[in-house]
Write a structure and sequence with these properties.
By secondary structure, the chain is an all-alpha fold. It has helices at residues 2-21, 24-41, 43-48, 50-79, 82-114, 130-138, 144-149, 152-167, 173-194, 198-213, 222-246, 251-257, 259-268, 275-285, 289-302, 305-321, 328-341, 351-363, 375-403, 411-417. The longest helix is centred in the N-terminal third of the chain and has 33 residues, at 82-114.
Length: 419
């Protein structure tokens, strides 16, 4: 009897060990830790690892356009109800605007309570912000045409919607859908193999960040960083958590469900690296292909909750740093300006700083040169922005799917997400 128990224990231990060492999340976490260690102990070598992280993200980006295109075309052509497609699009944009306004407001509120800008300027790391301030000064305002032309995700989204609608009127629709369905399986199959490289991407991204910018740059801006991370957590667990709770779902269960994507974003500092896999995960969860295809790509351009929080907090931080008093009307103006300009902070490295510079220029009270104090620690806050963005878009997809009766999870998934 004892021998049997021992054998059973050994089998359980082997089973646990096998699950652990074949779990992608485990290896991504190990890679992040290794990247931090290398960046701290050998910064010169760590900086050279940038090519590893960048190459992985570039490979993932190759999948983004075909996955968005195929998902949307198959979703719309399979739905049949074009009025419903339009309703989902409008509902998504309205939801995005409401939630990002909450994000902007909570960023300003927490920054006023904690006052992260009340520190000694002389101890801050100063870098050259001219490339961002000049870019802001050169533009007369936010250019929607330029934004669209520089945003591949939106371009693919627009083309896919047109083709998806057109297919509904094509007599040989079923044959085309069959071909596109096979193509979709091939693309997602290829993505599954590429994701095995995720630990390398996370290692390269984290090693470069620590090696290039150094943990010592965090000390002077530690209060700001702590405030940003705290605010992101409040937004995710209170605002987004309450939204899911309304639908009898749990934010904690959802975060557990997408833990691989969150760790990948943490390692690479890019929410784009997890875009294809989060779309697949949401479909597996029970959201319809059409809702996932419409909400996620649009959300990556218009539902940047983490970016909105950071931008609003950065403005208040700089106002406090320079002892600039902002009236209630001016704070409302900041929210209004950022509601528009924050939409231009998607997809392009450094675009957030250009948006921030444009906002400061529009206010005419806070020195634009203050950006120099933020550049050093910005890279360490980009992870929080990217993670909050991807969680926000995942929740948005579930909400739109639930309200459109397009959420049909399997038995295991619904039990995993319930409160």
């Amino acid at each position: 009897m004892e021998i049997n128990l021992t054998t059973s224990d050994q089998i359980q231990k082997r089973s646990f060990t096998k699950r652990l060492f074949t779990n992608l999340t485990f290896w991504v976490l190990i890679a992040i830790i290794a990247g931090i260690v290398l960046g701290t102990t050998n910064p010169a070598l760590a900086i050279k690892m940038e090519i590893v992280g960048k190459t992985f993200v570039d490979i993932i980006k190759l999948f983004i356009a075909p996955i968005i295109f195929l998902t949307i075309v198959l979703g719309i052509s399979g739905m049949g109800d074009l009025k419903k497609v339009g309703r989902i699009g409008v509902k998504s944009l309205v939801y995005f605007e409401i939630v990002t306004t909450f994000a902007l407001a909570i960023g300003i509120f927490v920054a006023y309570i904690i006052r992260p800008g009340h520190i000694d300027r002389s101890g801050l790391n100063i870098q050259d912000p001219s490339k961002y301030t000049k870019a802001a000064e050169s533009g007369a305002g936010f250019d929607w045409g330029k934004f669209f032309m520089s945003n591949l995700t939106l371009q693919v989204l627009a083309v896919a919607i047109v083709i998806g609608v057109a297919l509904n009127f094509y007599s040989k629709r079923e044959a085309v859908i069959g071909v596109l369905g096979k193509a979709s399986k091939l693309v997602f199959g290829g993505l599954r193999y590429v994701m095995y490289l995720a630990p390398l991407g996370a290692f390269g991204g984290m090693a470069y960040t620590i090696g290039k910018f150094g943990l010592q740059t965090l000390i002077p801006l530690g209060k700001l960083m702590g405030t940003v991370y705290l605010t992101m957590a409040l937004f995710v667990f209170v605002i987004l958590g309450s939204i899911l709770r309304y639908f009898n779902l749990s934010i904690f269960s959802f975060l557990k469900y997408i833990k691989e994507e969150l760790l990948l974003v943490l390692g690479t500092s890019s929410s784009e690296s997890a875009l294809p896999s989060i779309m697949k995960k949401l479909e597996q969860l029970g959201c319809s292909k059409s809702v996932v295809g419409l909400v996620i790509p649009t959300g990556y351009s218009f539902n940047l909750d983490g970016t909105s929080i950071y931008l609003s907090m950065a403005v208040i931080f700089l106002a406090q740093l320079y002892n600039v008093h902002l009236s209630f009307a001016e704070m409302l103006s900041i929210i209004g300006i950022l509601m528009l300009t924050s939409k231009g902070a998607a997809g392009v490295t450094g675009s957030g700083f250009i948006v921030l510079a444009s906002t400061l220029t529009a206010i005419h009270k806070i020195p634009v040169e203050g950006l120099a104090f933020l550049l050093g620690a910005d890279k360490f806050m980009s992870e929080a922005r990217a993670i909050t963005n991807i969680i926000g878009n995942g929740v948005a997809t579930i909400v739109i799917a639930k309200t459109e009766n397009e959420f049909h999870p399997g038995e295991g998934n619904i039990l995993a997400l319930k409160k």
